[in-house]
Amino acid sequence: MPSRFNALARAVAILLMVWLALSLLVNLPSDSAAFLGPLHWALALEVGAILAMLALGQAWAGYVPRIALHVLSGSVILLFVIRAADLTAQTMVGRPLNLFLDLALVPAAAHVAAVMLGPAYVIPAAAGGALMIAALHLVLVHLFAYLVRGFRQVAMRQAFAGISGIVLALTAVQGLAPADIIAWRPISGAASLIVVEQAGRLSSTLARQAAFRADLANDPTLQINDAALFSSLSGTDVMVIFIESYGVSALDNERYSATVRPRLWAFGERLAKAGLSVSSGRLLAATAGGQSWLNHATLSAGRWIDDQTLYALFLTELPRTLVHDFRRAGWRTAQVMPAITLPWPEGHKLGYDATYVAADMNYRGPNFYWGVVPDQFALDFFARRELEVPDRPPIFAMLALISSHAPWLPVPDVVGWEKLGDGTIYARWADSAPEPREVWRNTEAVRDQYALSIGHSIDAVAAFLADRIPADALVLVLGDHQPAPVIAGPGASRAVPVHVVAHDPGLLRPFDRLGFVPGVLPPPPPAGDGRLVRIDALRAFLLAAFSAGTDQGKRGGEVRSPRQVGVGAMPR
């Protein structure tokens, strides 16, 4: 009898350890804060189903084919990989995984990692990850084969039957108990739901594509004649300057505001000395944590472009944008993209008269990791190439600065314009900066660097506005998106600060209708992002506010929140 009891106890221990270990793999949470938390330790019904198939195969046929073991192992690994990818998406860009969209972004993510950490680290890490998956697969196949042999023993079959009965009973009890009474549930059947969720997101994505394509026929400029288009801005240079990763967390989160707000106050003081007025507000960006180009396109097109498939549709259909609006009204148009270092054929589809990428700027200084060309150098290039040209037409320009991109170092000083030269001056900061992999071992150090880099970009833009823009310019300075959740924090707003700058205060008054207020600080945040104006409203707003004969209370001037628009509803 003791030997029989010992055999049964040993079988129970083995099955529980296997069940729990595999459950930890397939129950990987989407929130890093929940890693190894109570919900992570729940026994997964999906693992129980795999064990049941092994037991039944042994009982009915006396064996389980080797190919079946490989399939079951692959199923566990597939769930683990999808859940790990979901955790990564939530951590890096603050949204759930969408395989249909995100698989296309893997090369871009690999490129970012290679630039930040270097191929010498990224390639071995990728190879190591592949080897770990292969090793896990072999371990699982051998584990399942071991269990099949174990199910030949009466004790193992009895142990599994008993455990299964208890698990099913607990599952039934859980189903009857309200969630607010039992916070932790020892049994989970949610591991495989992520596959169902991915199928649902595919269906939703396809539906949004169809709605987006249908909406392209609606264009607010069709009701405005050429003579009226931007007539209130006649002869005015209009610039949109994106500051990389400049989200409202930089101003609202005390962790960063202690560094960033003083730079913003200095920004305002320098503008005031130059005779410039400024109003500030908050707008809701289409993305968080990355994919800046989606927010560039969203603002320009006046359409909510929050995923790569909609962006691909945008490039295919090429609807009218602010670029076309200003060209039609007689402005020269240019885009300045200092982060672009590879061939960029889609850039020439956007309709600008001139497109400037990193190679065009004659920068000979050190590589600032992801931000190849520092912000001040890019702004100086634009001023010399486009603004300080005699007898030119007014210009509409979009500039996407990059110095405040992760890894947020080196952080240079703003220097006198005459000292920039060919950029070799930046070697002093590049040579003294730590390696990203050293800084990124410490989350607090990373956060420090984020605040410092945002402060530098604000300083560079302040110098540009105070020293280099014409007296009749209208400039919008805004963030392209919030930083990743590791910086902004879980559940952070997706809003970005927007500062509108001009010598003529009259050019700023229309922005009052967007909730903007005088000064460099936006108004306090509203109760939830649903009450914010989105950046896709800017195109229609600008057309209505600065074109003669438009009804600002109707389509062109209507300010829409995310919950008022079907196609642009915030993704779940």
Automatic annotation (TrEMBL):
Residues 552-561 have a biased composition (Basic and acidic residues). The keyword Calcium does not apply. Residues 551-572 are annotated as: Disordered. The chain crosses the membrane at residues 6-27, 39-61, 67-85, 123-147, 159-177. Gene3D superfamilies: Alkaline Phosphatase, subunit A (3.40.720.10). Keywords: Membrane, Transmembrane, Transmembrane helix. The keyword Secreted does not apply. This is Sulfatase. It comes from Microvirga tunisiensis.
